[in-house]
Each structure stands twice: as C-alpha cells, then as structure tokens.
Amino acid sequence: MSVPSGVTEHAPLLVIPTVHPRGDRRIVRCAQVALDAGFRVHFIWLGDGMPSDDPVVGETVLPSPKNARERISMVGRVARAAEALDGEMWHIHDYYFLHAAKRWRRRSGKPVLYDVHEYYASYYAEKLPIPRRAQEAVAGMLERYQVRAARMLGGANVVTERMAESFRDGGVPVSVSPNFPMLSQFAELPSIAFQHRRWVVLHVGTLSRTYGTELLVDLARRSAERGLLFEFWVLGRYPSPEHQTDFERVIDAAGRPANLRILPTRPTHEMPELLSRAGFGLSLLMPDGQNEEAVPSKNYEHAMAGLVNVVTERRAQWNFSTSNAVTVHGDSGLADSMLDEMVKLAEAHDETDAALRARARAAKERFTWELAVEPGLRAQLLRLRSVGR
Q1: Do 110 and 83 contact (CB within 8 A), yes or no?
Q2: Are 363 and 281 in contact (CB under 8 A)?
Q3: What is the rounded distance in angstroms from the CA atom of residue 70 to the CA atom of residue 266?
Q4: Three-state DSSP class for 322?
Q5: Cβ-count burial of 300 within 10 angstroms (0-12 exposed, 13-18 middle, 19+ buried)?
Q6: pLDDT of residue 388
Q7: Which residues contact 198 (CB under 8 A, 6 or more apart)?
Q8: CB 103 within 8 A of CB 152
Q9: What's this model's pTM, rounded to 2 decimal places?
Q10: Residues pairing with 283 in the sheet
C-alpha cells in the first residue's frame, strides 16, 4: 500500500475488522482510499504470516478458518480486537458483522461504514431448504435488516448501482464502488501482441463448482482430446480445503488433462503481469442465486488488459461482456462450441489484437477504480468522520 507523506501515527484511525481472508483485494483498495483521505488504518482479518506493526498501516492476523462455520465463529474474536483499538471509525465487510458493529456504535457513538460485497440477502436466503416463495420472504427480511442496520451505523458502500436502491429508499447515505481495476496497474496493458499469448487461457477466480470448475476442466479436457494448442493456467484459489479436495476430484474424473496447470496464488500487484501473458480469460459463473446479477471483477480486468473474455451466460456478466469486451460465451455442455470460437479468434490474431486494444482503451476510460470509485468513497469516509466528531 502507498502511504501519503502527510499521514502519520497521529492521523485518525480507521479500524477494518473482517472475517475475510488476509489481503482481500477489495478491502485493501478501500483502505488505500482511506489512507489517501488522511486516515491511518488497521486491518483485523484471518490468515497466516507475520502481521505488520507499522503505525500507519497495521494489522492483526488471526488464524485461518477450516470452513464457513468456523469463519463465522471468529466474528466475536475479531470484534473484541477491534474494540480494543478504540479507533475513530470502523469499516466492516461482512453481513454477519452487523450485530457486533451495532453494539460498538451504541457504546462508542462512533460511525461505521458497512461495505456490501454481494447480494447478501438473496445469497443467504437461497441456501435455506425451503420453497422459493419462502426464500423470497426471508430475503426481504434480511434486506430490511441490513438497511436498518446501515442507517443506524452511519452509511453503506455497495458494489452495484442496483444494490444501492434499497439503501437509498431506506434513507441510508450510500456510495457505489464497483470492483473496477486500478488504472495505475493496467495502464501499460496490453503489452504483448495477441499472437504471442493467444494459446494461454487464464482463470484467476475462486475455484468452486458455483464458479464453474466443472466447465473449466471440461474445456481443458476437450482441448487436449482435440489436439488444440491451448494451455490452461489456473490460480489455486480455494474458498476452503473442502473446495480444494473437490476440485482435485473434478480433475481426476477428467483424467488430469496435461494442459491444465495450477499456479500458486499471488498478491494483487502481481496480477497485471500474469494477465499480460494470457490471451483468454475465464469467468464461468454457474446458475446459482445472485450469479445472474453479478459481474465478477475479472470481467473488467480481462477487458482492460486486452484478453478475450470467455463467459457463461449469466445475465449481468454476459451483458457487460458483449458490450465492453471481445467475447466468447457458452455454458455447461458447450465446451466444444466455446473452443471453436476461441480457435477462430486465435487464428485471426491480427484482427483480434486490434479489437482487444480498442476495447482496452475504452475500458480504461469507464471502468477504473481511480476515476469511477475513489471520489465517492473518499467523500463517504470524510462525511462519516465529520458525523462522528
């Protein structure tokens, strides 16, 4: 992170308590906005390694959970650590942190910014084994609860404009912060002609069936069986050990295609270099609750870095991709037709290169964190600070 010269250990402290994993990209980017707005920050999150004891960018690192239940059980411990820091403000990133944040707000009188990464109400409701109509009723209750909570806390920062509607209707000051890439990291991309990266297919997202692991492996398997030149590079990002085990099973069932490589995870600042070497980027959302409304951040990154965006036909990401990227689309059971389209683009490499560069230039004018997100989030943080004084 970059610390402005004017921010010292005497700056107001923004505490960021979360049960997200250490280094979560959105959380780090939001914290950078806070630093630029004059706050010092302290993260409390889950992970491994030695924590930073820097007086301006500090952290408390608690053990990584083994599963979702263990992750949720860490809320109380994270909240106690946050309370002990006695910051001027909190920025929370978890639905199930709302209760602890409300308690701290009542006790301290200090404001909290609630960051909404996903359509939490529908996400949690759809996990319940009840009829669809009952799920919708539960989702409505959960939505009303988070709006009331955000109003009491002080404000909300949400990922999409559509997500902001219920908060605005409920009288909550809201900023909209899509997960756009940082122009500073992508300004020089694409840096390699498509001809020299056209056979590399990259998957940088979470590895779970909801995010398309079966289709990913099927694409690799069919490519190998057909003797195509594609190589599939996959970051080993797993939500839990159970998901890693499941992915290994999927690979085993496909005969472990030799063209599929699992790469070690890497920090955010190294991602543009990896993207620069790929010709195709995968975003393979499956039909599952909020996935019809989601545009994963890698869609923006693929467009800005000059990759062909290979997407499944979930409504929001499909619409974004067809309007803003060079696109191949398909779904489960359509691996061969998707590969056919990819081969056509790879073979017409000069035309594809020109189209990708044009799309990348346009994306950098519309979908950058610095231009579209930072001003609104900065204003929200400074407003909350003035309210809390």
Answers
A1: no
A2: no
A3: 25
A4: helix
A5: buried
A6: 65
A7: 279, 280, 345, 346, 349, 352
A8: no
A9: 0.81
A10: 311
- How many other C-beta atoms lie within 10 A of the C-beta of residue 119? 23
Average pLDDT estimate for 44-50: 92
Distance CA 97, CA 101 (A): 6
Question: Between the CA of residue 299 and those of 89, 138, 188, 312, 321, what are the distances in Å?
Answer: 32, 31, 18, 11, 7
pLDDT tens, residue by residue, 93-108: 999 999 999 999 999 9
Dihedrals phi, psi of 68, to nearest 5 degrees:
-65, -40
- The yes-or-no verdict on residue 269 having pLDDT over 90 is no
Distance from C-alpha of 377 to C-alpha of 182, rounded to nearest angstrom: 14
Q: Rounded to whole angstroms, how far apart are CA atoms 58 and 51?
A: 8
Record the tokens describing residue 318, joined without a space: 């499909």
User: Tokens 């912060």 identify what position?
Assistant: 177
Q: Listing from the earlier edge strand, what are the strands of the sheet with 89-92?
A: 57-62, 40-46, 13-21, 89-92, 112-116, 154-158, 174-176
Residues constituting the chain = 389
Tokens of 208: 């779970």
Sequence-ordered strand ranges (E) for the chain: 13-21, 40-46, 57-62, 89-92, 112-116, 154-158, 174-176, 200-203, 231-235, 260-263, 280-283, 308-312, 327-330
Residue 74, C-beta contacts closer than 8 angstroms, at least 6 positions apart: 19, 46, 62, 65
Angle subtended at Cα 244 by Cα 242 and Cα 248, rounded to the nearest 5 degrees: 115
